[in-house]
Write a structure and sequence with these properties.
Elements (H helix, E strand, L loop, with lengths): L34 H14 L2 E11 L2 E11 L5 E9 L12 H32 L18 H6 L24
Antiparallel strand pairs: 1-2, 2-3
Helix pairs in contact: 1-2
């Protein structure tokens, strides 16, 4: 089953999978690890950040294949809070005369594996930041809030941004921190 998420059209232009090089900072394009091995490594990286991976759903984001990673975190009161992270692989070039279906499928799979490889590395970087910045919550931007949207989605949609700011009728004083 595939999904096509309804996301704001703010994605930056990215290069084609076939055009990226390690010298430009891209990683994992030649990994020989299996898809299952990479998913397992991502799950381990999420667990280091305090989450538990529930599953991966393969899908597409416009012209890019990808995954939606579902996870939960446990709140201090024991409640499970769901989250999701969308991972879009680099697009592959459209079918050409020399691109048979088997070659296209291999390129798509390698692009997906590269995305998981780089995502695992990004999660490792978030773990480092969590160690260096007390109170940093790396999985919080991907927690699911109102209407099934993540904190990041709500923040990025200007009309909904007001849900994340303090109420106007409260005792909020800018720059002041109060206990309780």
């Amino acid at each position: 089953m595939n999904f096509v998420p309804d996301l704001p059209k703010q994605a930056a232009d990215v290069p084609f999978f076939e055009d990226v090089e390690a010298s430009d900072g891209w990683q994992g394009q030649t990994t020989q690890k299996s898809m299952d091995s990479l998913k397992s490594e991502v799950a381990i990286a999420v667990s280091r950040l305090g989450g538990i991976v529930v599953g991966f759903v393969k899908g597409s984001f416009d012209n890019r294949m990808g995954f939606r990673l579902h996870y939960t975190i446990t709140a201090p009161d024991g409640m499970l809070i769901p989250g999701q992270i969308d991972i879009a692989a680099l697009p592959i070039r459209g079918p050409k005369r020399h691109y048979d279906n088997k070659t296209k499928e291999r390129a798509q799979e390698q692009s997906l594996k590269m995305a998981l490889f780089m995502f695992r590395n990004a999660l490792s970087g978030l773990w480092f930041l969590q160690q260096l910045s007390p109170g940093y919550a790396p999985l919080m931007p991907f927690m699911i809030m109102q209407d099934g949207k993540t904190v990041t989605q709500i923040w990025s949609e200007q009309s909904n941004m007001k849900m994340l700011v303090p109420p106007k009728d409260g005792d909020f004083v800018e720059g002041e921190v109060r206990d309780g």
